[in-house]
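Worked problem 6 (solution included).
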Amino acid sequence: MENRVGDTETLPMVVATPAVQSRESDKLQHILLHAAQIFAEQGYEGASIRDISRATGVSLAGLYYYFESKQKLLYLIQNSVFTLLINRLEERLHGVEDPTTRLRVMVQNHIEYFLSHPAEMKVLSHEEDALEQPFAAEVAAIKRRYYSLAREIFRGISAQGMTPNLNPRIAVLSLFGMMNWIYKWHNPEVDPGAERLADTILAIFLHGVRGAGELGLNRSMAGATTEGQG
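Solution. The predicted structure is:
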């Protein structure tokens, strides 16, 4: 890798304009998108920077402009995913007070992203232990922030008396377990999209399989009654 520290000392300082910053951000996202696909297909250990260069169409020197190692690249993928998830969730929760609605917003936000980004989900699930320090600690910190937000939402559900004596840690981690493996089995040709899938997962989480089934049956009966009245 070339020594850019020495190079920059001989050049005048250049202030990036917003347009340049936007292009740089878009290019980085392009790299992260294709790198996640490569890691998902070949595994972190099996993938090389040259593989990523070929997939992105960016030269090796160009890639090293954005990250200095494969470890940093894995960190950028994980960090960007969790940051985006949290930011989108906080935006969608703004002004929403009902605890059940807040929980549904969280579930749909999570599912929507990973149904459209299965490679990123696979990388998060399978390459968590591949991340070394200090990157592992930084990603762990942002994951704790996401978990804390989920715990806060669940506390609202508990306050309504819907989940008496249920361990909040087990409940929240079980919910994440339900959501995080969707990429393994979801088939868009036969399975529902994010909105209906979120409804189903939320019903199972809050009412159990039997309760969720009865809830679906009651909705179907209500719909049939309404159609009959029309």
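Discussion: The chain is about 75% helix and 0% strand.
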